[in-house]
Amino acid sequence: VTLTFVERCCTLAAVVSRQRISMSTPPSPSYEARLRNPASFIEEVNTQYEGLHRAFEEQFWGTKMALKDGSYTVDALTKAKGEMEAFLASKEKLAQTRGYLARSDLSEAERATLAIFERTFGCYIMESEAALALREKCTAIEGTLEDARNKMRLGAVLDGAFVELSSVGLRSKMRVDGSEATRKACWEGLRSIGEFVTANGFVELVRARNAMARELGYEDFYDYKVTQAEGFGKGALFGMLDTLEQGTRPLMEEARANLAAAKGEAALLAYNSAYMMAGSVTQKLDPYFPFEHAVEQWGRSFAALGISYEGASMRLDLLDRKGKYSNGFCHWPQPAWVKADGSFQPTVTHFTSLADPSAVGSGHTALTTLMHEAGHAAHFANIKMPSPLFSQERAPTSVAYAELQSMFLDSLVGDAAWRFQYARDREGSPLPFALHEEDVRAKHPYEVFSLRAMLAVPYFEKALYELPDGELSAAAIQALADEVETRIQGGPGGRPLLSVPHLLSDEASCYYHGYVLAEMAVHQTRAFFAARDGVIVDNPRVGPTLRDAYWRPGNSEPFLGLVERLTGKPLTGDSWVATLQQPVDELLEEERAAYAAAAKAANGAAAKAAVDLDMRVTLVDGDEVIADTTEEGDFLAACKKFEGHIRQRFPRAAAA
User: Fold this and answer.
1) pLDDT in tens, 396-429
2) Residue whose C-alpha is closest to residue 248's, from 523, 498, 501
3) Strand residues in 229-284 grouped as ranges (E)
């Protein structure tokens, strides 16, 4: 088999990582330890990790959701995270693992499980006490910073008075409000996040993260994170990203010129671009994405794709509120895995978003977020491997691998066929094709802006962690963010880089490149399904194909290999760039045919069919339980109760 350049980088990085660890790894286990049954060791590691993982994730959820239970605290979260990472950084367990791997009498499952133990321990072991101390320092700074950020008084001065709004609320208002003064005030509110975080520990966090990474022999923190998660270093990553950046720069420049010509130079201002491109269309689309129907439509769509959650439980906290973490996420306090006795342990999923049903566009955002985060949940629910370490989202699980699954599924929300079936107003009428066409004409010529905004985050973090310590300051970081936005996006961005919550969190920092690689794979995977089946929406072969090709192996196989095996091609950005370059009339011809085919195939049965996702769903708002599929009897009954709750709590939005 011929390895691609990136795969050679993966292999080399793995060898280097192993060499870093082996130089001071404790001696091999004793003869007595080697005689111990490997199955007992595997069971011990699996059980201990499962408990530590669960304790951390429960604290993560409780603190991020600002639950009332006093046991959820920043200190307890920091302690639980430290205990989990101390377990994962056990040199003794790595030595034992390698002792067992040297044996010749292992079963295939035992060898695969020990291999993931070796990879995982290798990602967390730190050879120096100084690095460990710096790691603890990072965790402490991060906890304090995130707590302060969650309590930040965020909003905008509107009509002379300060109005509290979350970052999601500010961005939503900026997209649809007809007043330029209001849009500018919302953008300035988003900009204030950067000033706040750089004054409340982010500078110190960047410095400590870099010191830790360099103590471990890496170039900087970004190099450390990408090597651990993806298996190749920063150089290889930006070799790929540079090709995409350079290849799409002319498209961005052309799109900016066209937008200015069509809407005026003011359309290029950060707080005007999104509104000028599609503000009026967003308002027209709004009735076809009623927020209270979002959960039901997600369930129907996934069920029609043949997606099952394999007996999982999911807790959904969808509504925005003060003190709640400012970014949607999906985590798993209980990973899925196959136990030694052959029984399957289903996942328990925690899933959140920040919806305001009274805001224009909230239904569309909620449904897209549901499709995205529930895509993550479907992926992790379907991993069937003999250890929870195959199905946890941290290193060595590839960021790009995880994001591919969710981004592929949320991409359906823009498809004409999907919109005919699931974008329906409160009377049940489908979104008209004429409105879909208006949306495509407004947005498609400028889709490259989304790509460039996505690219800006990894380019900023790369430059951030390359800043010399002596130059690190709040002012320098803010200036760097502005410079990268201008260089990559052509001007200040509608989502200021320092407002991106991923930058603060250890799990999500130096992570955004995964979205870029995943989006490349999304387009390549969509092209595969289009060529094989002709359709994606409501195609019952899609779920089982994703399950078998992408989901079942968990992190046991490299992301690039999985994509190539399914699509038959090495990962490239070709399909994505081809989509961006497609003439709008040609695209609309394809979309019109897909919409007509969906309308012809519709017989009303889909809207009446029962929805069986093989999952318990509990809908909550912080500590309050809104609906539970177990209590209500089934998924659709829980959806109806949720719908009633939203109508009662947000009567003006539901009546719109």
Assistant:
1) 999 899 999 999 999 999 999 999 999 999 999 9
2) 523
3) none
The helix or strand, by DSSP H or E, that contains position 316, with its residue range, turns out to be strand 312-319
Give me 365's structure tokens. Answer: 């955002």
pLDDT at 279: 66
Q: Nearest-CA neighbor of 398 among 274, 578, 518, 571?
A: 518
SS (H, E, C) 568-624: CCCCCCHHHHHHHHCCHHHHHHHHHHHHHHHHHHCCCHHHHCCCCCCEEEEEEECCE
The Cα–Cα gap between 412 and 427 comes to 22
The percent of residues in the chain predicted with pLDDT above 90, rounded, is 82
Which residues fall within 8 angstroms of residue 116, CB to CB, at 6 or more apart? 385, 387, 389, 390, 396, 555, 556
Q: Please check whether residue 349 is in contact with residue 58, taking contact to mean a CB–CB distance below 8 angstroms.
A: no
CA distances from 452 to 132, 348, 416, 504 (A): 36, 35, 25, 21
DSSP state of 220: S
Q: How confident is the model over 273-294, as a mean pLDDT?
A: 90
Output phi, psi for 18, to 5 deg.
-65, -40
* HSE-up of residue 202 (Cα within 13 Å, Cβ side): 28
Instruction: Report residue 615 as tokens.
Output: 């999952």
Summarised one tens digit per residue, pLDDT across range 220-271 is: 999 999 998 888 889 999 998 999 999 999 999 999 999 999 999 999 999 9
Distance CA 20, CA 14 (A): 10
639 close to 295: Cβ distance less than 8 angstroms: yes
Instruction: Write out the DSSP string of 137-148.
Output: HHHHHHHHHHHH
Structure tokens at 508: 């999500």
Rounded CA separation 80/59 (Å): 7
* Number of helices (H), then strands (E), in the chain: 29, 9
pLDDT value at 481 more than 70: yes
Angle made by CA atoms 483, 489, 492, in degrees to the nearest 5: 55
Cβ-in-10-Å burial (0-12, 13-18, 19+) of 183 comes to buried
The candidate with the shortest Cα–Cα distance to 439, out of 585, 289, 592, 277, is 277
pLDDT tens sequence across 356-382: 898 888 899 889 999 999 999 999 999
pLDDT at 13 over 50: no
| Residues forming a β-bridge with 337 | 345
Q: What are 355's two structure tokens? A: 């919806």
In DSSP notation, 444-489 reads GGGTHHHHHHHHHHHHHHHHHHHS-GGG--HHHHHHHHHHHHHHHH
CA 630 – CA 234 distance, rounded (Å): 47
Cross-strand bridge partners of residue 617: 314
Preceding amide of 29 cis, omega within 30: no
156, containing H or E segment: strand 155-158
Q: Specify burial of residue 371 (Cβ count, 10 A radius: 0-12, 13-18, 19+).
A: buried
- Per the confidence metrics, is the pTM higher than 0.90? no
The Cβ-side half-sphere exposure at 140, using a 13 Å CA radius, reads 8
Residues with Cβ within 8 Å of 218's Cβ and at least 6 positions away in sequence, in order, are 224, 227
Type of residue at 147: D
> Rounded to an integer, what distance in angstroms lies between the CA atom of residue 617 and that of residue 313?
6
User: Nearest CA to 98 among 84, 124, 117?
Assistant: 117
Residue 503: how many other CB atoms lie within 10 Å: 25
